């Protein structure tokens, strides 16, 4: 039985989020520059997106660039942005062929103009696709997102379209970048780091977390299947007891 066959199609997560980590270490192990790791990371992105669409995973969110990543050496930031522009441009026909819609979350206005324009163009060109939504988290951090949501809610209170007593969890969810996206049931982080690193802090409240030592450029289809199988073998209790779940 192949790994793919071990996946129960009736118990697929609707939304998988991934922290793609370890590109730099992968390149260093090979005696190469960090950008070589990012370039090979793109191959893993392609493979994972294809596998998700084939399985029928409805949402796949990839943490491609964090707010904190702007603090990396200027040379690496520029190279990463160029890689993003190039990849989005080159992959748009493939996204359309595979019926994949592109979305982006984060402080997109802080992206270089060519990157922002390329992204908006690809989002528009793929907007009617329905198989899988690929969400790129770009210049994203959860604290930035939650702060932004709080500002928007405060403005509504100031202009009296909302009262403090009306605020509930749904109000906050509705003001996040992910307002129209279901919460991830599964979050994967590669490269042996056991952290959330300012990624989807609100949305991951009940997610299953899966950590693997595999570095992102080595993360392939089979590794993705393994994570899903591991998820399917877990019991999600949402604060209840096992007995309550059976009854
Ligand atoms: C983390 O590895 C990776 C990133 C910060 C960038 C991820 C970007 C890509 C895979 C390329 C473009 C992606 C898309 C969606 C087109 P790291 O540099 O932090 O590695 P390290 O922890 O080993 O230093």
Strand content: 5-15%
The number of domains = 1
User: What does the main sheet amount to?
Assistant: 6 strands, parallel
Overall number of strands: 6
Listing every helix as H and every strand as E from the N terminus to the C terminus, the arrangement reads EHHEHEHEHHEEHH
According to CATH, what is the topology?
A: Undecaprenyl pyrophosphate synthetase
Spatial order of the strands forming the largest sheet: 3-4-2-1-5-6
Radius of gyration: 19 Å
| Class from secondary-structure proportions | alpha/beta
Heteromolecules bound: farnesyl diphosphate
Protein architecture, described:
It is a single chain. This protein has one domain: Undecaprenyl pyrophosphate synthetase (3-Layer(aba) Sandwich), CATH 3.40.1180.10. The mean pLDDT is 96. 43% of the residues lie in helices and 15% in strands. With 247 residues, the protein is of the alpha/beta class. It binds farnesyl diphosphate. The site of farnesyl diphosphate (FPP) has 18 residues, from helix 1, helix 2, strand 2 and helix 3.
């Amino acid at each position: 039985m192949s790994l793919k066959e071990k996946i129960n199609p009736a118990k697929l997560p609707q939304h998988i989020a991934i922290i793609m980590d370890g590109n730099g270490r992968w390149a260093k192990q090979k005696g190469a520059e960090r950008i070589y790791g990012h370039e090979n990371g793109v191959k893993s992105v392609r493979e994972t997106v294809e596998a998700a669409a084939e399985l029928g995973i409805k949402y796949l969110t990839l943490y491609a660039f964090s707010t904190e990543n702007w603090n990396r050496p200027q040379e690496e930031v520029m190279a990463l942005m160029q890689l993003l522009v190039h990849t989005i441009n080159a992959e748009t026909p493939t996204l359309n062929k595979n019926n994949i819609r592109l979305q982006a979350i984060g402080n997109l206005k802080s992206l270089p103009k060519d990157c922002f324009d390329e992204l908006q163009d690809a989002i528009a060109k793929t907007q009617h696709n329905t198989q899988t939504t690929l969400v790129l988290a770009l210049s994203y951090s959860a604290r930035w997102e939650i702060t932004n949501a709080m500002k928007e809610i405060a403005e509504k209170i100031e202009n009296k379209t909302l009262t403090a007593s009306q605020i509930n969890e749904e109000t906050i969810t509705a003001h996040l970048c992910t307002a129209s996206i279901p919460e991830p049931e599964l979050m994967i982080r590669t490269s042996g780091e056991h952290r959330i690193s300012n990624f989807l802090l609100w949305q991951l409240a009940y997610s299953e977390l899966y950590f693997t030592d595999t570095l992102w450029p080595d993360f392939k289809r089979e590794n993705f299947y393994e994570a899903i199988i591991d998820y399917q073998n877990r019991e999600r209790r949402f604060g209840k007891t096992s007995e309550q779940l059976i009854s």
